[in-house]
Amino acid sequence: MVARPGVPPAAPLDSPGRLPFNRRSDPRRRDAVHVNTQPSHRPIPADLVEHVLARLGERSIVLVGMPGAGKSTIGRRLASLLKLPFVDADHEIERAAAMTIPEIFEKFGEAEFREGEKRVIARLLEAGRHVIATGGGAFMAEETRAAVRERAVSVWLKADVETLIGRVRRKSNRPLLAGADPEGVLRRLLQVREPVYATADLTVQSRDVAHDDVVAALLATLARPTAGVASGDDPADPGPSSRGDRPMSTVLARDADAVADPPADGQGRETVTVGLGARAYDILIGRGLDAGAEIAARFPGARASIVTDATVADRHLAAFTDSLAAAGLEPHAIIVPPGEGSKSFRGLETVVDGLLEARRERGDLVVALGGGVIGDLAGFAAGIVRRGMRMVQVPTTVLAQVDSSVGGKTGINARQGKNLVGVFHQPSLVLADLDLLATLPERHRRAGYAEIAKYGLIDDAGFFAWLEDHGADVVALGDGLAHAVATSCRAKARVVAADEHETTGARALLNLGHTFGHALEAGTGYGERLVHGEAVALGMAQAFRFSAARGLCPAEDAVRVERHLRSVGLPTRLSDVPGELPDDEALLSLMAQDKKVVRGKLVFVLATGIGGAFLARDVPVEAVLAFLAQERSGQGRSGQERSMPELSEPEPASKEPSP
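Now predict its structure.
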């Protein structure tokens, strides 16, 4: 390439009006942006691509690394998969200067080139979402690293020195390697640059394998919530090891409008706020909470109608009523039978009639004292009586404290499926008294634990790792319980604040394990054969195995999930459920009734790894049926099973009995 007429070759690179490094290029121009139209030859699931794009938001992907790492080739293929424009920063510099890189080095020197390089990359980062390949030395500039940190996700394509040498020998456009000892120069550059490259957000090995394999590894790494280093021999399996200045949970962080206040009241209590603007409410977590005093302080002058079931009433209603009466709340109780059967039109009628007969007004309170069934039923009644009454949740099960009491989902079951009739109606207060869990049967403590584990599996790998060490203590209601409940509530509060009505897909991630699980619940008649938390545990294990079968998730992560759930006594296989189950077609039909079906298309929450859940839309029916057939045949067992407690052990006839 020769210099353009009228551009003095000896002009310094930053001279205005001379070499045009300061000219802003239009990224839509075909001479400025190189868009690869050749499709990848390695099949990549469309839902994985969609997940990566959603996590990126408006950020670009910036590839860094040594000359010969394959940044341009890999970048073009990645951009093609993601349907994003691709920019080679070196080509953009050459286009702007009307010179080749070696010519710029020869005429102006490396220092002038680096200054121009910084300005070009800064402009590219401001030009919208791209895949950008940078020159080998670009990332060494702190100014460039800061700009990349603000607007992009950086990925180090890491290649060993032998691979780099083999590649750069085939090209003559590397000015720093043009001397008599390119191998020695390369080794010295690598020694200096590697520590800086290692601060990139992600690292993927660039090996002498098919380019599409490296692209697949890069895409899988981008999909994971924690920084990954491709440390194995297979480039398609970048390990979960952490590298870089910040984890992907920071790089691609979701907006969070929930805060946790430290237990500064000296009573060991913690408050989590669900940030919904004028409708924000607190979740108070602690032991021995004075419900009457807490409620009366927030709702002076209100009267309270307590909705509970017979099991909870026998154990707690008298003391609870006394607490509310002492606070002047004029309590009135509505008692329904325990179990999932009360979450029905008949159960709803009982509660609505009770509220109207007691002449409760819109400014009064409906107080749900019980587990998830009572919370859903009472919340639905509160949402429709007088066109909306205020609601207080006092959950008495693990499952309800960490999940169903928070977020405003209320409803009842229909013949066609679970939770198909209901409304979003947020509570005004949640009181999670850990002492109320003391008489909860062990089976239902385990079942509730499944919802705690779910939060780690969705997007908090660190929390899941903590649970692997402390899960048994949490199930036993030990010292770790408060931390587990508070962490779970914070996670739920963040999601609810960001996506209250499940319009963006963020809240739908909370349904991890529920598409499989709800079908199994329905197939077993919503009875004691398989209670809700057990169904969720089994469904989560299936979701991870299904993800692994589809090439989305490392097989070892699926094994790890199964191992942990079984370690606390939860089911993970169809064979763990006593009695006959519906056949595969029948289970698929039950899944089709799920609320997560969109325009007749099956929607699953799948995962790219522990902490990497994402929404997979339009999952092929054939893939689901093939997976169910494999599950039923018992193939792919991890070999990590331990003996399971009988799921049908005698307990009160309730899906989720409260203490």
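The mean pLDDT is 81.
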